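Cross-check.
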Amino acid sequence: MTVSTARVDQRIDRRIAANYQKLSPQERKAADTLLEHLDDLATYRAAELASLAEVSKATMSRLFRSLGFDGFDEVRDHLRGLRTAGEPRRVEGAPDLSAHAEGEAAAIARVVEQAGIAEAIEAIAGASDVMVAGWRNSYPVALHLRQQLTQTRERVTLAPAPGQVIGEELAELGEGSVVVAVGLRRRPPGFGEFVDAAAASGSTVIVIADPTGTVHLGRADIALECPVQGALAFDSLAAPMSLASVLADGVLHERGRAGRDRVSTISATYDRLHEVE
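Predicted model, tokenized:
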């Protein structure tokens, strides 16, 4: 039976949906099994999947070809590609939390030992103004970094503001400014253009990105790489958040008395306004 294949870059579940009505009854059984085990497909062999679906190995092979794959090895590569792109993938069974904790600790250790941290701290501490930018899952890291930095120095902004575009804020930048662009994976498509525009303004550009953002790290004056993939289904922000704390602590130390005075002034304002316990 000939089935039109979906585009080769399309997710496997979308390929199944696009071709489902054209599949034979046996192939549909096999497709249903694939969908039921989508999160842990890579842990099976093709023969095991065929047994689960109660179809022959030949039927399972025909289904793979119908979906545009040469075989199950290519399906595994496809699924690994989805995870590398940041798509959550959960395997069956309880997660190994000890392995997770060890992985988090190792990631943080790698991040905070980077040579570029000292250069980034010096640039941020000495800048006329600082913009911290981040989108999607990078936004909480950018928000946290801005909140820490603003306690140590003046003129620290967060971009983009809710409901706003970023062009107006880029217009305020110039020589002496520092832009910290947080670009963890599943970045919006305009992230690279933003980094280029920030650099064109004359600002010093610091990029914080995971290994999938190598091309953006290469655009930066100062590049800080942060792993986010661990043993669990979702990306971890432990290392980027730790990096934010290290940068802020370094800036506070670099600014000396001026930084300490600003912390004291802010704390006194908190007390006056009863804003924090």
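The chain is about 50% helix and 10% strand. The radius of gyration is 24 Å. Passed to J.P. for a second look.
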